[in-house]
Amino acid sequence: MKPVLAALSGMCLMLCSAAGRAQQAHEHGVAELHVAADADELVIEFASPLESLVGFEHEPRNEAQRAALAAAEARLRDFDSLFSLPVAAGCVLRGVALDSPWLQGAAHAHLHDAAHAHARDHVDGHAELVAGYTLRCEEPAALDALGLSLFEAFPRLREIRAERVSAQGQGAATLRPQATVLPLR
Q1: What pTM, to 2 d.p., does this model score?
Q2: What is the 3-state secondary structure (H, E, C) of 4-69?
Q3: How far apart are CA 22 and CA 118, in angstroms?
Q4: Model pLDDT for residues 116-126, shown as the tens digit of each residue
Q5: CA 122: distance to chain centroid?
Q6: DSSP bridge pairs for 165
């Protein structure tokens, strides 16, 4: 398979994997990050148990919980406060999509039907929030690393299991508060 086709195939598999997460163990404090690059497009998907972001996974029961969820959503919409890319890559954010059983924002877009179905399928009180980011990069060859500030933004996170795929290959890493850079090559 040609490298570009492999990257596109991997991108689809990652973004469509949200439904598969329903079958995996749900771990508080552990999130997933999927990064796919092809040509000048970069797609990032971050999925976390709601408990790791806001301290609860049930429908907000009071104003404080609604405010915590709204604050987490606002933070997740602010790409530049959570992620950093090499300036030389010239990446511009084109879109953000959030999905969760109890989104507080007035308007929201859904990542994918499978992700939406999974987010609503909060069996046994386990629910997650999925954030998707799409960027266009002027110099994709300069994309060598993705820095994360997610641990600072969400102190309950203790581990992020990351996977990346591009025309240059694929890889995985476990990120922690003391190791917050995902190599993209």
Answers
A1: 0.80
A2: HHHHHHHHHHHHCCHHHHCCCCCCCCEEEEEEEEECCEEEEEEEEEHHHHHCCCCCCCCHHHHHHH
A3: 6
A4: 434 434 445 67
A5: 18
A6: 36, 170
